[in-house]
Design a protein that fits this description.
single chain, 654 residues, alpha+beta, Transferase(Phosphotransferase), domain 1, six-stranded antiparallel β-sheet, four-stranded mixed β-sheet, elongated
């Protein structure tokens, strides 16, 4: 069964603003949902802390810390945080929604990635992590589940739930938090974390991408923790001979057991990764062991919950503090040592040695060209989206880019009209320093032709809404209508809740409300109140007692459902979930028949009509009706004193 079908959060309006639509993922601390921000009319991802943790002040403080940590980072490779709040007993975090997959999904589907794919992903991860380290933030929970691969090619780091200040490198206390497969030796043995602990996790991820499995495995978490503390991570090429020696060096450097033997932060490792990438692409001849493949477009991978047991964040108590300390420190390796070690392993003759010497000699010039010279790259930041053209221009010019005076236009379903929606090249693209950029201004949602919904079934209307595309607001409204067959569309409303059936166009991805017929209201005439309530409950209506009237139905039974007409005389519409008011019978309206025998015929007729009866005078009497002296009533039917229903027919005789 789909979890979304039983999750009570689906369809809930959070804090009067965020409409929960579906569940995306569930972790150790929180569940992530896809939602619609009704105020800004955009899709967002909302992380809601598990209810059993809401009363734990430490977990709540850590949850709020994620919002603060992420909010301090404004980088294309870090997931944006928009809002944080509390609704009833639920703490929540509103984040940027990125449709796509995680690095874990990619590994589950393809297992081993190519060298080029690994480098591309690692460059994005390290760029975002470098921004965090520069801001004084240590992630402390890096793993493939927290690396998001968007459908449009963007790569971002998420989940700073365990983040803390980089300077706070003291023991975490009685428990260790994080995913055991990626914990550094110092976290396992001493509970200490700094920027180099994140580097260790990056190295483990790089190993997993190149080999298709983690370096340390065990049936129990303690076994894996012991290996992290006492064993060196093997070279990826020992398992996958296609891995270049340069990547072996990067993995071994990043996963050194002693923190001092690793890169000090993500920026140092990223700079070395750039040089490694450049040398693999331009300097080395293609061989069986070093050939670099271009990144392929990979299909989305479905989540495989059964295969993620090693990726769940777990808590380890004080017993981990007794894991054996690390082995004697290996010799510290810097970038030069890495290059030398790679040269020894790849030595194939004097010509390769000469080539490496030439590369080392040109490293300084290459570093300048790609670092700050004409070959340097600038990423167009996401911060220009939804900014005014003036503010966006200032941001881009500060980055060294040349902004065109001419403004382009584009439709955008989220960004408000006259604000920057995108750019050419697109936001998130890396362009050469000084490259020209054209700002694209939002013209609002693109007008889309409104389908002919009249006569469609609910499923046909759903398909048409998705194909348009519009955004269907769930749940579908079920309305009773005696003129339209059950299951057919009655109306489709726009975001302002007015009908769009007669409109030619409507905005792309904008909210629509679908109203579908439930058929006519059920007939409850002359049923008991209990029977009528059960009948109405069966079609999704509640009921309550209303006014009482005289009626042919037995006293105490239901006459009908009160139509509750409005000021224009129109009966109200009933929708599933509404409450129907029942009109109750007081029984027939009986009155006593007056005795008019001996009365003047004209006076008797007038008296009976005023009492509410339909009077018939015998034909013979009518011939002398105006005779003098006045004719008198000699008989009547029914007889005087009899109880009959008001409005009945009576006859008088002369």
């Amino acid at each position: 069964m789909n979890a979304n079908n039983t999750d009570p959060m689906i369809g809930r309006l959070l804090d009067g603003r965020y409409q929960i639509r579906s569940r995306i993922a569930r972790g150790g601390m929180a569940t992530v949902y896809l939602a619609t921000d009704l105020r800004l009319e955009r899709k967002v991802a909302i992380k809601i802390m598990h209810g059993h943790l809401a009363d734990d002040s430490k977990f709540k403080e850590r949850f709020v810390q994620e919002a603060r940590s992420s909010a301090r980072l404004a980088h294309p490779n870090v997931v944006n945080v928009f809002d944080q709040g509390q609704d009833s007993d639920m703490a929540y975090l509103v984040m940027e929604y990125l449709p796509g997959i995680t690095l874990r999904d990619l590994l589950l589907e393809h297992r081993v990635l190519t060298t080029e794919q690994t480098l591309d992903i690692m460059e994005a991860v390290l760029a975002g992590l470098a921004a965090a380290h520069k801001a004084g933030i240590v992630h402390r929970d890096l793993k493939p589940e927290n690396v998001l691969l968007a459908d449009d090619g963007r790569i971002k780091i998420a989940d700073f739930g365990l983040a803390r200040a980089a300077s706070a490198n003291t023991a975490t206390g009685a428990a260790l938090l994080g995913t055991i497969a990626y914990l550094s030796p110092e976290l396992v043995t001493r509970g200490i974390a700094d920027t180099r602990s994140d580097i260790y996790a990056v190295g483990i991820m790089m190993y997993e991408m190149l080999v298709g499995e983690q370096p340390f495995k065990g049936e129990q978490p303690m076994q894996i923790a012991y290996q992290h503390a006492n064993d060196a991570v093997p070279s990826p090429s020992a398992t996958n001979h296609l891995v270049p020696a340069e990547l072996d060096d990067l993995v071994l450097w990043s996963t050194a057991r002693e923190p001092d033997d690793r890169p000090r932060d993500a920026r140092v490792l990223l700079d070395q990764l750039y040089q490694t990438h450049s040398s693999l692409m331009t300097a080395l001849p293609p061989t069986a062991s070093t050939a670099v493949q271009r990144t392929m477009v990979l299909p989305s991978a479905p989540a495989a919950e059964s295969m993620r047991s090693t990726a769940e964040t777990q808590i380890f108590g004080a017993e981990l503090q007794h894991v054996a300390p690390p082995a004697p420190t290996q010799v510290s390796e810097n970038t030069t040592t890495l290059s030398t070690r790679a040269t020894k392993r790849k030595s194939r003759g004097w010509w390769l040695l000469v080539l490496i010497v030439l590369l080392v000699g040109g490293a300084a010039g290459t570093g300048w060209y790609f670092g700050s010279g004409p070959g340097s790259q600038v990423t167009i930041p996401e911060s220009i989206q939804s900014a005014t053209p003036e503010d966006a221009r200032a941001i881009l010019e500060d980055l060294g880019l040349e902004v065109s005076d001419e403004l382009g236009e584009t439709f955008d379903p989220v960004v408000a009209i006259d604000l920057v929606a995108n750019s050419t090249p697109a936001i998130g693209s890396s362009v050469p320093n000084g490259a020209p950029v054209t700002l694209l201004i939002s013209q609002g949602p693109q007008p889309i032709a409104v389908p002919a919904f009249a006569g469609m079934t609910e499923q046909e209307a759903r398909d048409a809404i998705e194909a348009a595309p519009f955004t269907l607001v769930e749940p579908v409204i079920k309305q009773f209508d005696g003129d339209i067959a059950a299951g057919l569309v009655i109306d489709v409303l726009g975001a302002d809740e007015t009908s769009i059936l007669g409109a030619e166009t409507y905005g792309e991805q904008q909210n629509v409300y679908l109203i579908v017929s439930s058929g006519p209201l059920p007939n409850v005439a002359c049923a008991t109140v209990d029977e009528a309530s059960q009948i109405l409950a069966g079609v999704g209506l509640k009921s309550e007692r209303g006014s009482e009237v005289f009626n042919d139905c037995a006293e105490g039974t239901v006459v009908a459902i009160d139509p509750e007409r409005d000021g224009d005389g129109n009966a109200r519409t009933f929708r599933e979930g509404d409450t129907a008011t029942l009109i109750i019978s007081r029984g027939p309206d009986l009155v006593q028949m007056p005795d008019v025998i001996g009365d003047n015929i004209a006076a008797a007729k007038r008296e009976l009509e005023e009492a509410g009866f339909v009077v018939t005078v015998d034909t013979a009497i009518q011939q002398i009706f105006w005779s003098f002296p006045p004719a008198q009533v000699t008989d009547q039917n029914p007889t005087g004193g009899e109880m009959i229903k008001r409005g009945s027919d009576v006859t008088i005789y002369g």
